[in-house]
Amino acid sequence: MPHWLQLMMDSFPTLLWAGVKFTVPLTLLSFAFGLTLGLITAVTRLFGPTPLVLIARFYVWVIRGTPLLVQLFVIFYGLPSVGILLDAFPAALIGFTLNIGAYSSEIIRAVIASVPKGQWEAAYSIGMNWRQAMARTILPQAARVAVPPLSNTFISLVKDTSLAAAITVPELFQAAQRIVATTYEPLILYIQAAIIYLALSSVLSALQVRLEKRFSRYGGMLEANR
Amino acid sequence: MPHWLQLMMDSFPTLLWAGVKFTVPLTLLSFAFGLTLGLITAVTRLFGPTPLVLIARFYVWVIRGTPLLVQLFVIFYGLPSVGILLDAFPAALIGFTLNIGAYSSEIIRAVIASVPKGQWEAAYSIGMNWRQAMARTILPQAARVAVPPLSNTFISLVKDTSLAAAITVPELFQAAQRIVATTYEPLILYIQAAIIYLALSSVLSALQVRLEKRFSRYGGMLEANR
Amino acid sequence: MIELSHIRKNFGDLQVIDDISLKVKEGSVTALVGPSGGGKSTLLRCINLLEIPTSGTIRLGEAVIEFAPGKKVGWDAVQKIRRQTGMVFQNFQLFPHRTALENVMEGLVTVLKWPREKADARARELLTKVGMAHKIDAWPSTLSGGQQQRVAIARALAMSPRVLLCDEPTSALDPELATEVVEVLSKLAAEGTTMVIATHDLRLASRVADHAVFLEAGKVVEQGAADRVFGAPEHERTRRFVSSISAAVQSGYGEGI
Amino acid sequence: MIELSHIRKNFGDLQVIDDISLKVKEGSVTALVGPSGGGKSTLLRCINLLEIPTSGTIRLGEAVIEFAPGKKVGWDAVQKIRRQTGMVFQNFQLFPHRTALENVMEGLVTVLKWPREKADARARELLTKVGMAHKIDAWPSTLSGGQQQRVAIARALAMSPRVLLCDEPTSALDPELATEVVEVLSKLAAEGTTMVIATHDLRLASRVADHAVFLEAGKVVEQGAADRVFGAPEHERTRRFVSSISAAVQSGYGEGI
Amino acid sequence: ENLDKIKKAGVIRIGTEGTYAPFTFHDAANKLVGFDVEIGEAVAKKLGVKAQFVEGKWDGLIAGIDADRYDAVINQVGITDARKQKYAFSEPYIASKAVLIVRDDNTDIKGFADLKGKKAAQSLTSNYGKMAEASGAELVGTDGFDQSIQLVLTRRADATLNDSLSFLDFKKQKADAPVKIVAEQAEASYSGILLRKGDDELVAEVNKALADIKADGTYKTISDKYFGQDVSK
Ligand SMILES: Nc1ncnc2c1ncn2[C@@H]1O[C@H](COP(=O)(O)OP(=O)(O)OP(=O)(O)O)[C@@H](O)[C@H]1O
Ligand SMILES: Nc1ncnc2c1ncn2[C@@H]1O[C@H](COP(=O)(O)OP(=O)(O)OP(=O)(O)O)[C@@H](O)[C@H]1O
Ligand SMILES: [Mg+2]
Ligand SMILES: [Mg+2]
């Protein structure tokens, strides 16, 4: 067996375990929370009163505008100076949630606004209130366009969780770096990590295809290869 | 003057210069190339013959699925083993272009598909060919929804360029790290870097607002706070 | 039932509804007729507040709302009016992500909280009435123009609104079907539903309307009993408008009859 | 000019056009009439290949295309046919991101490569003809139904197609305007444009059409000279359909005339 | 008062990278081991507490001690004047010599003086970076020794400076890598345990513990285990 294959096989369980223990939960939790936050932010920007709109815009501006790594640093190393000492995992979770919230809010805002006005009117005309119109008429139509960009965000997240290593979360990539430290084979180990990331994202890509199919089944648009 | 302020003022020109010299050109070039690649990929997936569709899907799958850092590593440290020795900047440019291409192709694909079929038909009915219909009828309408998610990608890119440090491009974040090495003030320097990133992204955010306004002026949708 | 007083509606500088006052009695049918761009759709949309009038007062049943430039209208008041009105849109506005049946069931299930089976049965009944029984599970994007319009009518009828606003409800229907739909609407009117119908189909209008309003450039040119407005219009303008059809009838297939 | 032979069109299992053969002479006007869902729009869309027929042959001028299940149609052939045809869609399909004027100019500038000023002048002229001079710079989303339809007609006319396909071109127009638009179309026909008009407005049909085709459930029930089909229909089904309007006229405002 | 806190908790929290062999790394069983780690454990034992390691990246390590995420950093932190200004150090617990590493086929560079105008691949946050710069080299920034070596191997950099112990470890792993040492720094540099300033009691206790483990042979055992020699001088 060649050296590199041996190395990959030896390191595989370690990496996988780090992935299962930290990367996956961090990804799933921060996506769930982040998407909720994104929806709230998007709705605020579209329909909220001006002060809230300004707050929402400020939030999106700061979070999108500064590096995630710095945000994690501030949460983990900076907040203690004002008396907030968070553990690494919750700190990472907060950082990623804030991030997903900001990015996804832009996507959600765009797709909500892309549903023709007449659909709101149709919903109102049968007596729906705003909430019902949103939930039953607008979002299901908006979802069709939202799935690919949101899954971009989701899939980026999977890999961005590696930044959590900077604040001491021993996730997948960190595990790879540990092995590199003793084997001096960064390329092999990183490719190994990449393969596991690829496997995780493939699950999401498959989900994306399913959702796209589901939300598009009502037709009215291009029939196209995918 | 407090220590931290002094430090920030001292380091500002160094960081700014690194930003102007490496971060900005890397961002602009890879976005321009990446967007072109994304458009080609999206169109291929929507309209291309099956073999090309499969190639495009494979490309998107691999690039979205694996960490950018690893891709940069493979291009920079891995390709030499097959005889391709790239300088750091071109290697980074290739890596980022491939990335933007994959992510933006998903967005472009979604928004192209979101334009109602009837618009293609209207364009064809006045004798346009596919190219004209795409350029003059479909893309301008698709752009309205595409701007926020694409600017997500663009703004992420600004900060992801810091990964180029891993393959020895002395960009903004690396400049900050160099100063950290002598001052041991990561938090201050990173916040300093974050401020410069924020300034760069603010330009993009402003551009986003303008483009959104421009592409939305024709109405037909929700009038909403932004 | 419905009372509009001094309603104005501006879009920017453009005054589209210019000081219109109108009373619609409970259980009556009012036809809004007039040239294209006259403001029929806008007036209908003002009644259920899809457009907020620039100024004026609207009374619908017990709900009264006064409008003035810059004055915000409470959501509750709006909702109160909308709950009592149904609307058939000029361009249908079906929910594309729901089948024909689901389109009709939507309000029953979501707003009136009917159990699904009951809503399903009612929706089927209505779709059958408008001749759409065979397309119950079709997506709107696969329906012909007239089929979409009939689903839209069924969707509005399903909610049994006290007031039904119809914007060109037969524009996409062939004469046979139009007659059938008109019959359905007449029956509804006879059962006490108040209706306001914007239409350029004067036959439809004269057939079902008690009251007719002739709108041009946002102003009421003439209004009164439908028979009188269509049969013996007072104003020169109205006369010309009404006669344009008789002219068409005489010169066209009318000869053949 | 146009010759359809044995055209069939299936959507999945649903056969929407069932073996239709049809000849349309150069410069003639053919009216497609029939109940909603009968296949009028689909047949029109098959002529300019917005729908690719499942089987059959289409000849349009010199271009001939044969269809068969599974057989791909060359883009060139399709484009050749589309360049000769214009279409007014049942739901207008204006370009929402272009003003009324730009909608009409679009084909002239992009396809025919006219200089902008020339295209602008032509577009203004056409919009004036359909009574839309005052809305030249309006976005489609701010136009009333009838106004949109008129822009759509102007857009199709602008290209001076050899064949003009109109899908319910007066459905959103009031009788006065409908008459005007019909006049514009008649004049065009007189100048040699070949027209196929799907309509449920039998008055319009009888006024402008030389030839009439009665379509039901994807089949031709009756066809022939328009006068004959409308005036003295042979088939029981056609007779009933045509009489539904006379009935409406008699019972409705027709009394008042 | 920090000392009291540590004693009371029964735990001393130590920040370390965990990716720097042979000082602080993970063995095949993924357990954190290494020279620094064992030194930390031995010191903790002398203090009568348990050692609890927190692993993070280098830039974070320093920030973490400011944010009170741990009490000490044991990670081959070189004792320099600049660092002494902000932090307290224990007495040195290891001495190492910087070596100059080039490709086997490189004949230009024979000593530190030849670095002038050449490219040196260095982790920017390390002391060696500064040493290379002082010799007139142009720095190519990397994230660590493994990358620095890669750059030298792919000829993107001419040389890299690092401590001899790391290089030995590297050669142990990759005996056939075409790199060699061409020069060694004359005077050794020392690393110590990094502590927060203003806690002289803790510094004193740590120094005492270091002295104790040297005295009772613990230090020698650890040193032999990882390097086969005494690395205290
Ligand atoms: N959102 C809007 N912004 C600006 N102008 C508008 C808007 N909506 C309608 N208008 C204008 O108001 C006028 C009245 O429009 P409306 O749709 O009420 O006409 P209508 O009587 O229903 O005509 P039609 O019979 O053609 O449907 C038109 O000139 C139209 O262009
Ligand atoms: N894309 C499609 N998929 C499935 N069925 C379709 C599709 N398009 C049209 N149909 C069906 O084909 C039949 C004919 O439709 P078409 O639009 O041609 O009717 P039409 O004669 O134009 O009717 P109308 O007068 O109501 O416009 C209808 O039953 C319709 O539901
Ligand atoms: Mg209208
Ligand atoms: Mg039709």
From TrEMBL, chains C, D:
Domain of life: Bacteria
SMART domains assigned to the protein according to its UniProt record, in alphabetical order: AAA (SM00382)
Primary enzyme class: hydrolase
Keyword annotations: ATP-binding, Cell membrane, Hydrolase, Membrane, Nucleotide-binding, Transport
ABC transporter domain: residues covered: 2-242
Family to which this protein belongs: Belongs to the ABC transporter superfamily.
Name of the protein described by the UniProt record: Cystine transport system ATP-binding protein
Organism: Rhizobium wenxiniae
Organism classification: Bacteria, Pseudomonadati, Pseudomonadota, Alphaproteobacteria, Hyphomicrobiales
